[in-house]
């Protein structure tokens, strides 16, 4: 990233529901575990990405994940956990 | 093949705060807010209602608040007492103390060397009129603060040096003070060496260079409007009517040679920007300033440091010839000079800061901060826009409550991290929201550290200039509407949170992490 790009990055009005494409590898913090649905998920804005496999001890961790499927209309998708990178500082 | 995280991932602990002794309060964890809340009330009554800007009075207020808080502690009071010690010995407290002591010595030495005279000469020669002076002051203060990274140090230097010059030139004192504070806000927010910048980056797992670059877009928008506002307000708000004789006397005594101290300031800025420690940077500036004072005949060594030795001392005869010794009556014995008065001017504030940090530590260990966080997550931060708005308003609120902005920033940083991570808001964005309001609100309200630092400096001016009367001292309660850059920065971020301007997600780009604290 050039210095100019660093200064200009993010200078847009960003949506609350970002989109992803299947196959994309992303780093996300795992938001929560939904007891009722048995669903481990990460919110990116208000887009909900459910882990196809995961356990509640990942909540709060930063993980590398691959997008498996994504529904652009519902702003929901599924991701596969690839690697646990670390957990948030707090 | 998908890895099963529960099997493959490393053991991950439950996410919780650092393991420290908790304090139980009658009435639950909200009661732990009491010492800080009482102090804020005291500060409002003392400085706002009674219009007494005595910093030592605030020290008394914080002491009383800490004592009152103790009566609400369940069981043994030892933990409460120990928490006061723990808070006071935090590194953030020492950092502020050291920065002030050094900045105070430096600013006073520049002052002894006729820097104000140089500035008055320059302003007079360049015909910067009273209307433009606050706007120019804002820019110069912003530059200095960005260079040395300490808004408090900038406030001290500019209140001691630019403020009297501006008043003599007919600028409005309240507006001038607001412009100085605005410059301090700008630098505190943007400087890579600023303690608040560093805290914001480190706590949000982002690198400092990337954080500075990413916050430029917000800072510059606010600064452009702030500059315009100072130009407009400078034309609309009249200055004081200083007697023509005082002005003439001052301008007659203005001395272009005093401007060499721009180089002293440059030494500090350059060494700081080169990444040297702020203590080292200011020390070099101090050495250069003293040398310039001597070489250009701006001030004798005795103006920097003078031992007033009583004639009754056995050593009086032997040291009488030294340039830093004056033999006096026993009643006048003492130490004087810019090093002495520069440091001594901060003693009450230093004590106050230590006590306030102790109070906020009690609030953390008593669960008051956690209570606020839980309430926010459950009731307010329920979507990404509302989460960001909560981060902006929450940071503003905590910073308006806790006088010393770095202490407030450290206290709120975990909330910003947790709320932001819940929605995968990028570390740069979180750091920017955190630091903007920390910087802005730390220089606006009457009890804010930045305002008090300036006020403490200003109170020394009547002793230094015959023409400077007590009436010219700006009361902290007067200045809050005029810290334009601070207010604009707050509103820029409020609008950004509401509209999504500048919002980035963790999936958009990686914030290169700096070493964790």
Automatic annotation (TrEMBL), chain A:
In terms of superkingdom, the source organism counts as Archaea
**Any Pfam family:** DUF7513
**TRAM domain mapped to chain residues:** 19-81
Show the PROSITE patterns listed in the entry. TRAM
User: What is the name of the protein in this document?
Assistant: TRAM domain-containing protein
UniProtKB/TrEMBL annotation, chain B:
Tell me which InterPro entries the record gives.
Answer: Na/H_Antiport_NhaC-like_C, NhaC_Na-H+_Antiporter
Location comes to:
Cell membrane
Cellular component (GO) terms are:
plasma membrane
Please report the record's description of how this protein sits within the membrane: Multi-pass membrane protein
Q: Pinpoint the Na+/H+ antiporter NhaC-like C-terminal domain residues.
A: 203-487
Q: Which residues cross the membrane?
A: 26-45, 57-73, 93-120, 132-152, 158-181, 218-237, 257-275, 282-307, 339-358, 440-462, 482-503
Molecular functions (GO terms): antiporter activity
Which keywords label this protein? Antiport, Cell membrane, Membrane, Transmembrane, Transmembrane helix, Transport
Keyword set includes Transmembrane: yes
Similarity field: Belongs to the NhaC Na(+)/H(+) (TC 2.A.35) antiporter family.
Q: What is this protein called?
A: Na+/H+ antiporter NhaC family protein
Species this chain originates from: Haloarcula limicola
